[in-house]
Design brief:
about 130 residues, Jelly Rolls, five-stranded antiparallel beta sheet, mainly beta, single chain, globular
Length: about 130
């Protein structure tokens, strides 16, 4: 995957996905950075009509176990967003940094309107390299 450099440092692209309603999808690239800072870029032709939000979480594949972080909620918008998903201290002390990220879309229910149209949007995830 390619990398982009800016004032923060070097961002490594972890992939681009089209989130699905209530289905966890995994980004194709594994994160190997010890930094907890991530950058989200969302893409859509209809940002003003989006009536959903996203959840993102980290997935740690240990020897015989899969462990997930708590989910972080974000709202798709045209500008880039910074979020932090820290690596648990117990994993850092054991030098376990590798993780995958997963994303899921949640369509909001609006009172008196019901469930609204599923406006499509894409998400690109980047990690800050150390």
């Amino acid at each position: 995957m390619n990398s982009i450099s800016d004032e923060f440092g070097i961002w490594r692209n972890l992939g681009l996905l089209s989130p699905q309603d209530r289905i966890w999808l995994q980004f194709p690239e594994q994160s190997t950075s010890t930094d907890s800072l991530l950058r989200i870029s969302c893409f859509s032709d209809y940002f003003n009509r989006i009536n959903s939000y996203g959840l993102i979480r980290a997935k740690y594949q240990l020897s015989n176990t899969v462990v997930f972080s708590l989910e972080t909620r974000f709202f798709p918008r045209a500008d880039k967003q910074l979020i932090e998903i820290p690596i648990p201290k117990i994993l850092i002390t054991r030098n376990i940094y590798a993780r995958y990220f997963e994303v899921m879309k949640i369509i909001r229910y609006r009172r008196r309107v019901g469930i609204t149209n599923n406006i499509l949007w894409d998400i690109k995830l980047e990690e800050l390299e150390n």
